[in-house]
Specification:
By secondary structure, the protein is mostly helical. The chain has nine helices and three strands, in the order H-E-H-H-H-H-E-E-H-H-H-H. It is about 60% helix and about 10% strand.
Length: about 160
């Protein structure tokens, strides 16, 4: 069980759209002090960032919340994410699509058995993945044509060191 599970539970149980907690209230929930990085002026914004690569952020993200830090008051407002908003935005933007793009979205809905918002997300994710792969392929091709040495820097350093 995560150290931050009590925070996740509290946030998941709260019906309010926004819940503001002081650092002290969060520490009382956790039964322990927050790490120094949560307080440190230089890095606290990263600690409170809404990224699932941080164990503490997973707690509020799993509860469907995003953290908004108020550094002046040492408090955080956890705002409920509105899943419907994303779908509504996707549905509203369908009107701006070309007939071919709209047909692609509708076909994706049928083929994958998903709603319009999910179909748009799937198509965007596939496009992004495809573009990233194409970029990496271009980078690989440009490296192969590069005038740089095929010998690694480490090998050159070792050669230089051992040659003395």
């Amino acid at each position: 069980m995560s150290v931050y599970a009590p925070l996740e539970y509290r946030l998941a149980q709260t019906k309010q759209n926004a819940l503001t907690l002081s650092f002290e209230e969060i520490e009382a929930l956790l039964g322990r002090k927050l790490p120094q990085s949560a307080y440190d002026e230089r890095i606290r914004r990263q600690w409170w960032a809404n990224t699932d690569t941080h164990v503490q952020a997973k707690a509020w993200l799993k509860a469907g919340r995003k953290a908004k830090l108020n550094p002046a008051r040492n408090e955080v407002t956890f705002v409920k994410e509105q899943a419907e908003t994303g779908v509504e935005c996707a549905l509203l933007s369908l009107a701006a699509l070309t007939p071919a793009a709209r047909s692609l979205v509708e076909r994706t809905c049928q083929e994958r058995g998903v709603d319009l918002g999910t179909a748009v997300a799937l198509l965007l994710n596939e496009t992004a993945r495809s573009r990233n792969e194409a970029f990496l392929d271009r980078m690989d091709r440009s490296r192969s044509r590069s005038t740089y040495s095929s010998v690694s820097s480490v090998d050159l350093i070792r050669e230089d060191r051992d040659g003395r």
